[in-house]
Amino acid sequence: MVTDQLGTARTPGRPRSEKAEKAIIDATIDMIAEGATVAELSIEAIAARAGVGKTTIYRRWSGKEDLVVDALTSLKAPIPDLDAPTVRENIVRYLAAMQHESHSRRTRCIMNIAMSESERFPTLAERFREIAIKPRREALRVVLQRGTASGELRPDLDVEVAMASLTGAMLFFTKWRENDDPLPPDLADRIADQILPGLLP
Amino acid sequence: MVTDQLGTARTPGRPRSEKAEKAIIDATIDMIAEGATVAELSIEAIAARAGVGKTTIYRRWSGKEDLVVDALTSLKAPIPDLDAPTVRENIVRYLAAMQHESHSRRTRCIMNIAMSESERFPTLAERFREIAIKPRREALRVVLQRGTASGELRPDLDVEVAMASLTGAMLFFTKWRENDDPLPPDLADRIADQILPGLLP
């Protein structure tokens, strides 16, 4: 058995702080999933739910908005490796990651609830965009730019519109689904196979 | 001067009921724009704001959800005439109408506020989809189907994915704008010019 600086017996395994942080993130997510709005959340209530002291939360996050941003970010799929040999494969990987992270109805609800307050919590929405959204979009932008450089994509590619059509197509299925029918597992391929060659004969 | 059946003097012009209905719709929209959630709205408050009696509202709408659906529907651009000679022109008209109706920040706020409660008011969201959304999507679907029939579009067109990419691209710009910069006026054309011929060289 190992003892730390304060003489406390430490069992080997995950550090205490990492467990505490996971409990805090999980508590935040659970409370939003149960319907708590960002306005209704409090560090106090989250700490109680997570079984930690408030100081443990403040050690890592300066306030509830920072904590909610990290909680929402943890729900997003990791940016996939976009180093496949073809631009089509990288596009499919990117779209498939979007589809995968939308799979859980619970995740969709949480995102909707939190983002519905973006008028009242503009800083939260802005930080979430900076931390979670922009890096993902930039990764796709780089894939498309490499595609024009390699000659796989048209030299006059309108990169922003291309991104909007690829991402927008997947978002159309994941965000505006009219029902909870499962999405086809090959949806990323189908989107790539329409948008890359286009709709003309 | 004309008198009606009750002997009330009627000035020529818009019928009284049409003015009252417009006032009711406007009051509903204004109150949502000022931050009232659907939960917080009441027929009583809307009637007071519109300067009408509650019975005037109930004559046309069975409850506040029906009224909110009609109010939101009134914010959407009319389905444009999609009878242009080419499929490209019809696609551009459709996308341009989407762009036009998103132009007002106020309209976007109202839509967001009302739709953010779709978990709590599923009937409202469902009815709005039936009345306002589905007919518009069906109109675009018909355009694309006619395009494959006429040979302007590929015979193996994946219609649902094509709709998702066209609509999703415009929604990506209008719904997830990261700022309030004005959208380029030729955006509908740019989207059509990427998606129709595709991204390949």
User: What oligomerization state is this entry in?
Assistant: homodimer
Portion of residues in beta strands of chain A equals: under 5%
Report how far the terminal alpha carbons of chain A are from each other: 71 Å
The CATH topology annotation of the largest domain in chain A reads as Tetracycline Repressor, domain 2
* Biggest β-sheet description of chain A: 2 strands, antiparallel
Residue-averaged pLDDT of chain A: 88
- Binned, the helix content of chain A reads 55-70%
Q: Helix count of chain A, per DSSP? A: 9
* Top-tier CATH class of the largest domain in chain A: Mainly Alpha
Strand order of the largest sheet of chain A: 1-2
The CATH homologous superfamily of the largest domain in chain A: Tetracycline Repressor, domain 2
Total beta-strand segments of chain A: 2
- Alpha-carbon Rg of chain A, integer: 21 Å
Just name the CATH architecture of the largest domain in chain A: Orthogonal Bundle
Unreliable stretches covering 5 or more consecutive residues of chain A: none
Explain briefly what this protein structure is.
2 copies of one chain form a homodimer. Chain A has 201 residues and is mainly alpha-helical.
